[in-house]
């Protein structure tokens, strides 16, 4: 029997390939059906229209070729031909995309099973960190899927939303009443809008949503919440630049003035000094917090080289 798209999209290596997981984190040892799966995905119109970075694909195919040679497997011509075709096109400058298969709700239509995100391949580009998706953002996207009840019917604000993966995952899977994607950077907001548009053509957004320019440095930006208070404030990977801690905590403090607003932050612990400094800033703003760490192997699309913390923030008076 021929291979189906469902078999293909359920495969671990395919999922890792589609979101351009670092090669070092992929187990190439036991390749069998994977070669056919990868060739099938690569020729799909979705990946032709929204391609992964060419250099990533050629390195990935090279890793497969080397492993097959080491295993003494016969190499198929299609694999070599694809590899040769792509190395001639390596200087292609994009735009490039990643395709996230987060849950187990796989359909035979590739477009219905993935969230497609245009991403920069550098961690800082156009003066912002928001044009690529960060690990805590991927973690938040997976957490939304596993905690749909926490988001259902809620008015949610996301701070520093970047490319929009977490928010798109929440809108598609969790039926919030409303979701506001916010970020301070115009280029980030433009990419975000593009990403929402791509995914809207293949998925039904189950809520109202908006994209809003909001800077933690500008207290005026918070005026829009005077009448309409969020039930839930989310943010991922916003704790890395200590010059931002005071404005961020001041923004969080503003939201905690409404006692029913919950705040949940996802944070990758890359540098424990920076992390400790952020917790000290929360205390300085009289904000109470509870931390938990994401379990290992939370999702196969996530690289948990560093621990990912979930921090729940509240007014001190409520928690104590
Ligand atoms: C490291 S990125 C994380 C993006 C996304 N949450 C993710 O996890 O992929 C940090 C984000 O915070 C935004 N940001 C940085 N400083 C900000 C500020 N003062 N006000 C609002 N957003 C800010 C950046 O534009 C960027 O999108």
From TrEMBL:
Pfam families: FAM86 (PF14904), Methyltransf_16 (PF10294). This is FAM86 N-terminal domain-containing protein. GO terms for cellular component: protein-containing complex. The keyword Transferase applies. Keywords: Transferase. InterPro entries: FAM86_N, Methyltransf_16, SAM-dependent_MTases_sf. Belongs to the class I-like SAM-binding methyltransferase superfamily. EEF2KMT family. Residues 15-85 form the FAM86 N-terminal domain. It comes from the Eukaryota. GO terms for molecular function: transferase activity.
């Amino acid at each position: 029997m021929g291979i189906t798209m469902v078999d293909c999209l359920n495969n671990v290596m395919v999922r890792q390939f589609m979101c351009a997981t670092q090669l070092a984190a992929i187990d190439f040892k036991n390749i069998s059906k994977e070669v056919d799966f990868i060739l099938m995905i690569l020729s799909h119109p979705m990946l032709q229209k929204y391609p992964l970075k060419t250099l990533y694909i050629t390195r990935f195919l090279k890793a497969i070729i080397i492993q097959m040679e080491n295993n003494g497997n016969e190499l198929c011509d299609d694999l070599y031909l694809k590899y040769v075709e792509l190395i001639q096109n390596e200087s292609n400058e994009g735009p490039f995309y990643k395709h996230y298969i987060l849950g187990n709700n796989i359909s035979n239509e590739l477009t219905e099973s993935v969230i497609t995100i245009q991403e920069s391949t550098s961690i800082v580009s156009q003066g912002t960190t928001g044009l690529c998706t960060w690990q805590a953002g991927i973690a938040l996207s997976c957490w939304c899927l596993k905690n749909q009840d926490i988001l259902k019917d809620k008015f949610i604000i996301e701070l520093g939303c970047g490319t929009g993966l977490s928010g798109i995952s929440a809108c598609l899977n969790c039926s919030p009443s409303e979701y506001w994607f916010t970020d301070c950077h115009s280029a980030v907001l433009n990419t975000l809008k593009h990403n929402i548009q791509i995914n809207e053509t293949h998925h039904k957004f189950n809520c109202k949503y908006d994209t809003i320019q909001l800077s933690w440095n500008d207290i005026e930006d918070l005026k829009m919440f005077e009448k309409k208070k969020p039930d839930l404030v989310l943010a991922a990977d916003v704790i890395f630049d200590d010059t931002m801690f005071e404005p961020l905590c001041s923004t969080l403090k503003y939201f905690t003035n409404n006692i029913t607003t919950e705040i949940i932050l996802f944070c990758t612990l890359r540098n424990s000094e920076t992390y400790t400094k952020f917790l000290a800033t929360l205390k300085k703003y009289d904000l109470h917090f509870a931390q938990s760490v994401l379990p290992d192997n939370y999702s196969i699309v996530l690289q948990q080289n560093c621990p990912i913390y979930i921090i729940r923030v509240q007014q001190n008076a409520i928690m104590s």
